Amino acid sequence: MNLFDNRAFYKSLFTIALPIMVQNLINSLVNILDTVMIGRLGTVEIAAVGLGNNFFFLYNMFLFGICSGGSIFTAQFWGKKDLLGIRKNMGLCALLSLSMTVLFTLATLFAPELILRVYSQDEALIAVGAVYLRALSPAFLPYAASFVCILTLRSIERVRLTVVSTVIALSINFVLNYVFIFGLGPIPAMGVRGAAIATVIARFTEAAILLIVSYTRRYAFIGPLRDYAAFSLSFVQRFFHITLPVMLNEVVWSLGISAQNIIFARTDTDAIAAFNITNTISQLTWVFFIGLGNGAAVLIGKKIGEGNELEARDYAARLVRFAPLTAVGAAFVLIPLSQLLPFVFNVNEQVLRDVTLMLIILSCSYPFRAFNMSMIIGICRAGGDTVFSAIFDVAFMWVFSLPIAAIASFFFHTPVWLIYICVCSEEPLKALVNLWRFKSGKWLHNVTE
């Protein structure tokens, strides 16, 4: 097969993927600017906000598990032009997301210190992080509403609105961050609390834009309220059969990311600061592969829903070759970025050196990570192969990379960059298993039948 002989595939792929890439890139840029602004306050503040955002990330993964699992149905219903199926699936996703939202909102309002003590024993860090989390708690509800809308819009190939809403919301977030963190005119400097308030306002704005425009334009998922509650017991059972592994996958994976944060936070404050900065910078290049995976999932899921399995397999074959190839180029972007660190982050020399080494390590792992992302998000989930992807996406993390990273930190007290190598060591092993699964062809299932 000639990798580039199907222009229609790449045209369709990038029609969907590019807006997702732009949306995620803007999100990442704003996150970086947030990190830079907060970093001007000091190492404790940047570490505290990083840990607070890690708890928000855990919430994000619960939502992603629910909605990403639901998008498997949405894409295949879209291929069949089954609008009632899209709406009842969206209604169930919204109900489950709201349940998670209530739990996380109450936790951040009433027990932020308890949450942060899971990650660190540094009382100064916990005090600052608690202020941030408590102020952030109102953002959970609008974020859930936006999340359900965005993943549904992507699955029905309506991605422009998601980009516009994100651009507006994050622009507001950036401006208000500057005003609320440092103060302007009569508005006092509020530090990390100001950053949280800016995020809350931005999230409400984003949700309002998505819901109002979708209703005004009568997109496919807009219908009478009874359609959203039309899911039967048999559909709920089928939904959970497919999506529960995705939910568990995302939750266990996000707990693994939380465990990584715990390892670095308990190493020392400089280590968690370096880890947070590395992750923030890596988002700039990783958005390309997130876009590819999500775009391909829509196309492959739609082809399966249409009953065109042969073309779905052809799309999958192109994706697993294309993504790692582009990862090599993206990796080289990270190295020059490391040279800008002293100009944007107010941290000590040791943190800067650690971040530079960690970015080099990350660059080496990129082709493996791109292949794994393509398989898990773009192929296995689109094909309803959620049990396999759930098991092997997290198995190597919990059985291999996290234990050796913890041993390296807590028992041998190795340098931070060596702990980071341990964290990244799962990717080549995972790639071998994913390659075997792809070649077996057992990843394709029509979940709407």
Structural class: mainly alpha
Poorly predicted ranges: none
N- to C-terminal separation? 31 Å
Largest sheet: none
Radius of gyration: 21 Å
Shape: globular
Strand content: under 5%
Sequence-ordered SSE layout with sheet pairings:
Layout: H1 7-39, H2 43-80, H3 83-110, H4 112-117, H5 123-136, H6 140-155, H7 160-182, H8 192-217, H9 225-228, H10 233-267, H11 269-306, H12 309-338, H13 341-344, H14 349-380, H15 386-410, H16 416-424, H17 426-440
Question: What's the quick description here?
Answer:
The protein has 449 residues and is mostly helical. It has one domain.
Describe the protein in words.
With about 450 residues, this protein is an all-alpha fold. The protein has one domain (about 5-440). The model has no long low-confidence stretch (mean pLDDT about 85). The protein starts with 6 loop residues before the first helix and ends in a 9-residue tail after the last helix. The chain is about 85% helix and about 0% strand.
Features:
449 residues; mainly alpha; globular; 17 helices; 84% helix
